[in-house]
Each structure stands twice: as structure tokens, then as C-alpha cells.
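Subject: Sanity check before I submit

Could someone independently write out the C-alpha cells for this chain? I want to compare against mine line by line before I put it in a report. The sequence has 193 residues.
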Amino acid sequence: MNVITPKRFTIDEYHRLIELGFLTEGDRIELIRGELIQMTAKVTPHTVCGSILCRQLDRLLGDSVVIRGQDPITLPNHSEPEPDVVIARGRDEDYLAHHPYPEDILLVIEISDTTVDYDQTTKLELYAEAGISDYWIVNLNSRQLEHYSQPYQNAQGEFNYLGKQISLPHQSVVIPGFEDVSLHLNRIFLTSE
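---
Independent answer below. Compare away.
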């Protein structure tokens, strides 16, 4: 009996598809566990939040780190997701030869509205498995920031984070790796009123 299985891609094969023009930036595709995943379209609040968040982080951290917005990171589990924001060590030119690896990353941030469930499950497990120490979800629906820390693997082989902390729009949060720098969340959770 023949079993039909989907074709899974390595990161090198994925890059080759891009080089050959089979995938373009306009396709909005990311590689997750070897599968090509179509990213959802961003609605206006998501886009505005991402822009403000990058600007605030740049003001707070300056040139001490690299702040990447919707750019790929390379993970060992045949994945090259494009988080909404990544704070990585070093300088921009350190990533000319490759995208940031887990050991380069201080923080991964996903801004969630239509993708909350996906970001709280698939993306969370992906980042925990890769050993990303800190993962934030800016949950626009619940108007809260979810901070996950301390990745681990349980006895069943599933990956998750030991720590989860919720912060609300009137609070400030310390940026991982910068214990003396706080981000005021009221600058992120804006209202259109």
C-alpha cells in the first residue's frame, strides 16, 4: 500500500526555490518544520503595532543590538520563520552571510490578532525547541503581552516554556538582556479613539 506524504524541504532547498524565482517576497511564505506555510495578511492594527514596536525598541536599545522586523531567522528544526520582531546580538552586517541563529537571538516577538492560536501553539513550540530563551506575543485581541521564558522539553518530547507572564497596557516590561531598560506597553497598545 502506497502512503502519500508531503514533500518536506530543507533550509538549503528552500533557499534554492527562492534563488530560482519559484518563491518571491510577495508570496509571503515561511518555512516551518520543512513545510511551506502561507502567512496571513496583516490588518492595519497589526502593521501599526509592528512599526511602533520597532521604533520604540530602536530608541531604547540603539546600536547595541540588531532589531529586525519581519525578517527570517534560521532554526535547526528545518524552519525559517519570519517573526514580526527579533532582537539579535551584534550588528546588521553580522548577518550578511546568514540570518540570525538561535544563539544570536535575545528575543522573538510575534504580534497576534488573527494568528493568536498559531502563535501560542505552533510558533511557541518551534521557538522553545530551538532554545529561544525569550518569546513575546503581543496579543492585540486580549490587549496583553505574553512573555514566555525558559524553554524546556517534557517527558513526552513536547517543547514549551516553563515561565509565562502576562503584562497589561498600563505596565512596563523589562527587555530581556537589558535589565535596566523597560518598554512602556501603553506605547504599543494604542487605540484608534
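---
OP: Matches mine. For the report I'm noting this point. The radius of gyration is 17 Å.
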